[in-house]
Design brief:
The complex is a heterotrimer.
Chain A lengths: L1 E8 L35 H4 L4 H16 L5 E5 L5 H13 L8 H6 L3 H10 L4 E5 L5 H14 L5 E8 L3 H9 L10 H4 L12 E8 L7 E10 L3 H14 L9 E4 L8 H11 L4 E4 L1 H4 L6 H12 L10 E3 L8 E8 L3 E8 L1
Parallel strand pairs in A: 2-3, 2-4, 7-8, 7-10
Antiparallel strand pairs in A: 1-5, 1-6, 4-5, 6-11, 8-9, 10-11
Chain B lengths: L4 H15 L25 H15 L6 H7 L3 H11 L2
Chain C lengths: L1 E3 L6 H9 L28 H11 L13 H16 L4 H5 L3 E6 L8 H8 L16 H10 L5 E4 L5 H14 L5 E8 L3 H9 L23 E8 L12 E9 L12 H14 L8 E3 L6 H14 L6 E2 L2 H4 L6 H15 L1 E2 L21 E2 L4 E8 L3 E8 L2
Parallel strand pairs in C: 2-3, 2-4, 7-8, 7-11
Antiparallel strand pairs in C: 1-5, 4-5, 6-12, 9-10, 11-12
Helix pairs in contact in C: 2-3, 3-6, 7-12, 9-10
Classes of the chains: A alpha/beta, B mainly alpha, C alpha/beta.
Chain lengths: 348, 88, 395
């Protein structure tokens, strides 16, 4: 399956593609908020007024694609938490009004499949429609569903996306759980940090995938995942992905890793780049996007542009250069909390 | 001192804009006899429930089901008449 | 397969109540909400402690009493999951194989701990024991950890069609060769969150729900979990095959976030696609386990969709009249009930329907009836316009 169109709303200037010209936006906070376009220009006000942050972002990035591709056969979305802000707002109402008379909009908008539903509604798309909420593998689950749909000849073209919002509430919850750094770290220094915790990001990255297009940005070859692995099981999982695609380790020239500056999370990435795929160039992405459960969708967005030869932003994410070869195959590896590990394999 | 009918109407319109998060619509833009669920405002069944909550929280008026609500939530005039008749 | 709901803690007790036409809906005893006195619920009649003790009794995989931050959703999931793998005789080695997948679903997930979530989200005091357990995929992760599942795992949330979509995805993974066996289903527990949400939408009935009755006035919320073990031909040679997943279809109604269109585009397309994928004619469907929530909107649009899809509408019921609406778990629980019908060649009565919608000259099944069944359909429609239909056949 091939990426033929894509749109991202992220903490970088991705919506109008300024990042692709090399223009990086600096973040120096525990929270990397997205830079939002003026939604009023293209989302009908009657619908926009109800949308929470995740839905605005998802529809904001997805609607231009749905409009440009009226022949989309399916919508497949990954979002770990969906509209969590609406969810907690509704919860706050329950407590503050003691289960009294409550406004339903937050409730309806809080269901994680509201983005996929809204995109179907706005595009009048009655095809296959689904939403994965599997924490740090929600986007990888969506990629596999897309892979299956093409394999089944069920679709010629579909919309794939990964979306997550930051609200004060989920920041609070994850912060209490020890996800984020206590100190302020500049994004230039994030990846070399040796303390616990990372920074909180958000974003919506959506893709139009096609079966056999004449022109495209990149090919998504495959996806694999494992949960609670031992190191040995982790190694086997990568081997399974490579052998299924008839690849040797050195066929992968570039790896994009989820380094996030959390000292607890680093060893998995180091293991992969030092022991499993030692000869590939190493790229990062979370210094641009922050960390969130579906950030591999943003990594996919970056990879698709790199494989399309757009490389002006490359200096911002280059960690280690092992060779001078052109980028022709990228393996994205990310884990959330050392529990859920996902691989996405893309090529030219 | 009690509110005049005109003051109540304006207050209600402000609440409608706020509760329904209407974008680009000022309270003064809503006409007293403009059908709320007509094409201009683009309100739907969820909005009717939101308005039932509005009446409860702001005016202490209980409407128990959407069918009953439909008779009352016609336009600003009908709602204001109902508020005046039932306000505690 | 394994199931827990208001009509029983396992498959055999559920069957007894279906056969006896005895609903599990009534006043809640364990669920704590302002609405427990005024509304009816399809509650699993066990406290969390009792559920936990039953899990410990059923499995050798550790006593849940020692786990912190355990939600009721997860306890329900453990029980149904364990029954399912027992029946399918899956070993620990089977469960840990990279060829074994697990696809679950939930709408409430860890949010069933509403009060703790409120405190943590608003930073009121020290973190609660649930602080890492609010995610929709939390129960999935707990099952994965408990049973050491390494293969493909997923959590779906398409609201009330979630576990029907889990069945669909599991079947597709096996068909594509990405897995040899997949355990699929969903779990949801009663929660202030959903009770107040549906109440705010004014679609909860004060009475036990009355699917397909002209006086129906809303749904009754329930709770439960249901899991099915799906296996490809290669691994289930010597096993009892309970049924075959013959077809599935999903469509988005593309109409409204919380209501079905009058034309029922989504339900019709879901059923048509399920028929097409099974290769069956509509006349070959012997029974429909309807979505049948008992809301004014759902039942009339679902009937319309039946009429458009079938020349002659097959016998239908809504087993939500027994369990209440179990949200994400509904699709898998109702698939299990459909399989019970299929295997016993019995149709079970749809309850609380004294004056049926008569627009199409039909009424739901009114009493337990013997009928030779080959192919049955189960419908699940959810918020966000998500509609799924599954066809199960005798194997």
């Amino acid at each position: 399956m091939y990426i033929t169109d894509l749109k991202a709303i992220s903490p970088q200037l991705t919506y109008d593609n300024e990042l692709l010209e090399g223009k990086k936006t600096t973040h120096e906070d525990q929270v990397y908020n997205v830079i939002e376009p003026d939604y009023m220009e293209f989302i009908p006000k009657g619908l926009l007024r109800r949308m929470g942050r995740a839905i605005r972002m998802g529809v904001g990035a997805g609607l231009p694609l749905v409009k440009a591709h009226s022949d989309i056969d399916a919508v497949v979305i990954g979002t770990a938490n969906g509209g969590l802000e609406d969810c907690i707002k509704f919860l706050n109402q329950i407590v503050e009004y003691d289960e009294g008379v409550l406004t339903p909009t937050n409730f309806v908008q809080s269901t994680p499949n509201a983005v996929a539903g809204q995109l179907a509604l706005m595009g009048q798309n009655r095809g296959y429609n689904t939403t994965y909420t599997n924490g740090g593998l929600a986007f990888e689950n969506a990629v596999l569903d897309a892979w299956l749909l093409f394999r089944e000849n069920a679709v010629d073209k579909l919309l794939l996306g990964g979306i997550e919002e930051i609200s004060d509430y989920n920041y609070n919850i994850d912060s209490l759980a020890g996800h984020y750094k206590n100190e302020i770290v500049n994004d230039e220094d994030l990846l070399s940090s040796t303390t616990k915790g990372t920074v909180c990001g958000e974003g919506a990255s959506l893709f139009v995938l096609e079966k056999a297009p004449a022109e495209y940005y990149a090919k998504i070859e495959d996806v694999e995942q494992i949960t609670y692995p031992t190191e040995l099981e982790f190694d086997d999982c990568l081997e399974l992905l490579l052998s299924r695609n008839n690849l040797q380790v050195d066929d992968i020239d570039t790896i994009m890793l989820g380094y996030n500056g959390d000292s607890r999370h680093t060893p998995w990435y180091t293991h992969l780049e030092e022991h499993l795929i030692p000869n590939a160039n190493v790229l990062s992405f979370k210094n641009l996007s922050g960390d969130y459960r579906t950030c591999s969708a943003f990594a996919t967005w970056l990879s698709a542009h790199l494989l399309n030869g757009e490389k002006a932003f490359l200096p911002h994410i280059e960690l280690r250069k092992k060779h001078e070869k052109e980028i022709s195959r990228i393996l994205i590896y990310n884990h959330f909390d050392e529990v859920r590990h996902g691989f996405i394999l893309l090529s030219k | 001192m009690s509110q005049t009918k005109e003051e109540l109407k304006l207050e209600l319109k402000k609440h409608i804009v706020e509760y329904l998060n209407l974008l680009d619509i000022k309270p003064e833009d809503i006409k007293d006899d403009e059908p709320l669920f007509g094409p201009d405002l683009g309100l739907d069944s969820i909005d009717s429930v939101e308005m039932i909550v509005l009446l409860d929280r702001e005016y202490g008026i209980k409407i128990n089901n959407p069918t009953e609500g439909r008779q009352i939530l016609v336009d600003v005039n009908t709602i204001v008449d109902y508020i005046e008749a039932n306000k505690k | 397969m394994g199931v827990i709901s208001a009509i029983g803690n396992d498959v055999s007790s559920s069957l007894s109540l279906l056969q006896a036409a005895k609903s599990g809906i009534g006043k809640a005893k364990h669920f704590n909400s302002k609405y427990t006195s005024s509304l009816n619920f399809g509650e699993v009649d066990m406290s969390n402690e009792a559920l936990s003790a039953l899990v410990a009794q059923r499995t050798e995989h550790g006593n849940p009493a020692s786990e912190s931050g355990l939600s009721r959703t997860t306890l329900l999931a453990y029980l149904a999951f364990q029954e399912a793998i027992n029946q399918a005789k899956l070993t620990s080695v089977d469960l840990m194989s990279m060829d074994t997948g697990f696809i679950s679903s939930s709408t409430v997930g860890g949010m069933s701990n509403t009060d703790e979530l409120y405190a943590d989200a608003n930073m009121k005091g020290e973190p609660s024991e649930f602080v890492t357990s609010y995610g929709g995929g939390e129960h999935t992760l707990r099952v994965i950890k408990k049973y050491g599942i390494k293969g493909f795992t997923s959590t779906i949330n398409t609201a009330c069609s979630s576990s029907a979509n889990a069945i669909m995805l599991g079947s597709r993974l096996i068909k594509a060769g990405r897995a040899k066996r997949v355990i699929v289903g969903g779990a949801d527990s009663l929660a202030k969150y959903t009770v107040n949400g549906f109440n705010a939408l004014m679609i909860l009935s004060e009475n036990p729900c009355k699917p397909f009755d002209t006086t129906r006035d809303g749904l009754t919320l329930g709770e439960g979990a249901g899991y099915l073990v799906l296996e490809g031909e290669s691994t289930c040679k010597d096993k009892i095959k309970l049924a075959e997943v013959a077809g599935y279809g999903n469509s988005n109604d593309a109409f409204h976030p919380s209501a079905t269109s009058d034309e029922a585009f989504g339900p019709r397309l879901a059923m048509q696609r399920a028929l097409a994928s099974s290769g069956l004619q509509s006349t070959e469907i012997d029974y429909i386990n309807a979505h049948g929530t008992g809301t004014p909107n759902n039942d009339v649009t679902e009937m319309f969709a039946f009429n458009e899809t079938f020349d002659s509408i097959p016998p239908y019921n809504s087993t939500k009249s027994y369990t209440g609406h179990t949200l994400a778990a509904a699709g898998s629980i109702e698939a299990i009930f459909s399989i019970l019908s299929l295997r016993n060649n019995e149709l079970y009565a749809s309850l609380n329907c004294a004056s049926p919608i008569s627009d199409y000259g039909t009424r739901p099944i009114d009493k337990k009836t013997a009928k030779e069944l080959k192919h049955v359909m189960s419908n699940s429609f959810g918020f966000g316009g998500n509609c799924t239909s599954i066809i199960l056949s005798k194997s």
